[in-house]
Request: fold
Amino acid sequence: MSNYDVLVIGGGAAGLTAAVVLLRAGRTVAVVDAGAPRNAPAAAMHGYLSRDSMPPRDLIAAGQTEVAGYGGTIIYGTVVDVQPGFRALLATSTEVGARKILIATGLRDEIPNIPGVRERWGQDLLHCPYCHGYEVRDQPLGVLGGDSEAVQHALLVRQWSSDITLFTNGTSPTPEQREVLAARGVVIMEEVVARLAVFDDRLHGVELVDGALIPRSAVFVRPRFVPNSDLLTALGCDTDDNGWVTHAATGRTSVAGVWVAGNAADPRAQVITAAGQGSTAAIAINAELVEEDIAFALATHRAANPDSSGQ
Reply:
C-alpha cells in the first residue's frame, strides 16, 4: 500500500488546486480521479480569470500536468471506501494510505424527467446564468419549473434577456408571483411540457402537450443539487438538515483529518470558487501537518535526550 501525506479524492478544480498547493509545500500527494466531472457536457467555462471560455477538460488536463510536474501522483479510478486512519480502497482493490484526506467529489444534478432535457444538458439546456447567460443574452429564453425557486430563477435570467418565458409545467403561480413576473415582463406558460424540440442537434423550442411549439434559443432550469457525499458520511462527518456535510471555512469537517472542498461542500461554487476552496483547504491541511510534525520531532528529541526538558 502506498502512503502519502494527503490523499485528494476528486480531480476537479478544487482537488487539483489543493494538490498543487500541498506539493509546493513539500507534501506527498495522491489525487484519485474518477474521470466523470459534472461540467463534462459544457463546451466552455466562464468567470475564471485568464481562463474564460476554456473547455473544462482542458483546465483539468492542465491541472493534472501541473500536479505531475510537482511530483504528485494521479490515480485514475474510484474510491469505494475510506477507513479511519486513513486507508482508501479503490474499485480496483488498490489501497492508498494517507495522514489527511481531502474529499472534493462534487455533486450531481437532478433535473426534470422531460424528453430532451438530459440530452441537451450543458448545451442549450442550462442551469447557471452567471456561467452561460452572456452567451445567450438578448435571445428568446425559457425557464423550466413551477416552484418558487423556478420563479426566482426566471427573474434572475431576466437580467440577460427581455424575452423570457416561464414554463411551469402544469403548476399555477401564486397571485404574488404572477404580479412580480408580469412587472418584469416574464411570460407564464402553465401548460404541461411535452418535450424540448431539437432538430439538427440544436434546440428550437419547448413543445407543449397540446402541440404548440414555443421557440426558444436556450432553456434554463434550476436543478436539485445532491452532494456526492457517501464517503464523507461513511466516515461519520456531520451533516446539516439538507444532507450537506457541515464544515469550517477552511473545509475542515467534524471528523479529524477529513476535509472537504468544491461542490461537495458548496453547491453554488463555480469553477473559480472551487479552486479557491481547494487552496484554502490545502493551506489549512499543511498547517495541521506542520503542527503534527513539530509534536513528533519534539517527542523524538526528548526521547533521545532525556535530560533535555527545555527548562
